Amino acid sequence: MTSLKTQIENFEFHPEVYVYPTPRTYTSKLTKAEFTKDLNVYIHIPFCKQACTYCGYLKIVNSDLQETYLDALLKEIKTNHSILKNNIKTLHFGGGTPSLLSTKNLKQIIDTISNINPNILNTADEMSIEATPESINYKKFSEFKKLGINRVSMGLQTLVDSEIKLCKRNNFSKQSIEAINILRKVGIPNLVLDLMIGIEGQTVESFKHSITSLIKHRPETVELYAVGLMPNTRIKTHNLMTKKEIYECYDIGRKLFLDAGYHQDCHNRYVIPNKGSFFQEDYLFQGLSLIGFGAGARTYAKNIHYRNNYSNKAHKKAILEYIDDINNNKSPIKSAIILTENEKMRQYIIYNIESLDKKEFRRKFNISFQEQFPQLHQDLTNLNLIQEDWRRISLTTKGLNFRDLICKHLFSENVRKLEEEYRPK
Ligand SMILES: C[S@@+](CC[C@H](N)C(=O)[O-])C[C@H]1O[C@@H](n2cnc3c(N)ncnc32)[C@H](O)[C@@H]1O
Ligand code: SF4
Q: Is-contact 409 376, C-beta < 8 A?
């Protein structure tokens, strides 16, 4: 593997490492999963009204499968009733575009969970839904709020109309700002706005414009996503910014957000202190299990990670197979990876990479980070990517920029091999 030093000198880019092991490595069969008592719940809604050029997430556009999918989803939730009796700390609807659900359908899902676990509204710190600006209207989101939704994560991607057009999206800046104003009127306490870095036609200057326009609306949380080139998308790569410019955008974003009073919550998230957050990710990184429902949904238990019917090429087929499996009382779980003690240690570092508690690490794994990874520790120090005191190893500002590249150096041999062998299907 190329050294970190060379990778950084060449401004190599690695897409966000959200979970470890990465889903491309799920090649095992399922064994019994063990969940933590406090639990995150994820629901995948794979329907959209548009196919954005860069997006490889599991979804279908303008489909008539919604009702049958919903029936299957409710059945899958009921089948997992014993796990859902744990303390549900977060519920997140992701997609696709879950904000396209009608209030009736969203209520059906939440009711199904709360019939199993009537305490959910007391234990959940966060009930969150992803949305596109065009799907926001006052009546629907007032009802969503009454159902317990307290966080809306809305994908703007850019506030430059020519870029929206190139992405084949419909949220021109006027619609985006209207949607923000509606969500403010509804009184959603945690408004999250997503912006992307490196979409077609975007320049460093136009990215800066999107950020300064967005900051005026004071969203509690902002997520910045550098575009990952996913299989089977329609993104045209000839007019994308360079990797070096992507890193420049990270620095520009950080400066603008910090100057505006935001706090950098993690490598790609800025929050208004004590207001913004993404608890589902925080709790996952703190070691809470996550159970996912729906096509392509992943579950992260203590001893195993697994995924329901999925394809990154044939999205509709995967969704139909998921529905079929559920209707035929078959398990929709198709692939998994068992976590060895070594993988658990690597996962712990990756999830805590921004600030690793040295004492806690030694307590858990009976070794220090430096003893376990002497060469990497030295490289991180020499390259000024970490700072260290007696308690913690923390990423520096430079380290935060290169967080995903650093994570890649923590992947085990086995995970690297499985990643290399992976072919989209
Ligand atoms: C699954 S989308 C859901 C939001 C909603 N469907 C929308 O598009 O507005 C969640 C976020 O993932 C990000 N995303 C989508 N495709 C991406 C890609 N190829 N690389 C990086 N981030 C991506 C976008 O910022 C998007 O807002
Ligand atoms: S970015 Fe959002 S709206 Fe666009 S295709 Fe992906 S999930 Fe659907």
A: yes
Does 57 contact ligand 1 (Cβ within 6 A)?
yes
Q: For the chain, list residues with pLDDT below 50.
A: none
Q: What is the pLDDT of residues 34-43, one digit of tens each?
A: 999 999 999 9
Q: Phi, psi at residue 395, to the nearest 5°?
A: -70, 140
Overall residue count recorded for the chain in this entry = 425
278 lines ligand 1 (CB under 6 A): no
pTM score of the predicted model: 0.97
CA dihedral 22, 23, 27, 30 (to 10 degrees): 110
Residue 176 CA, ligand 1 centroid: distance in Å: 15
**Going from the N-terminus, what domains does the chain have, and what CATH number goes with each?**
22-285 (3.20.20.70), 341-418 (1.10.10.920)
The angle formed by the CA atoms of residues 184, 190 and 195, to the nearest 5 degrees, is: 90
Question: Phi-psi bin for 232: left (phi > 0), alpha (psi -120 to 50), beta?
Answer: left
Whole-angstrom distance, CA of residue 286 vs CA of residue 279 = 10
* CB-based contact 31:331 (threshold 8 Å): no
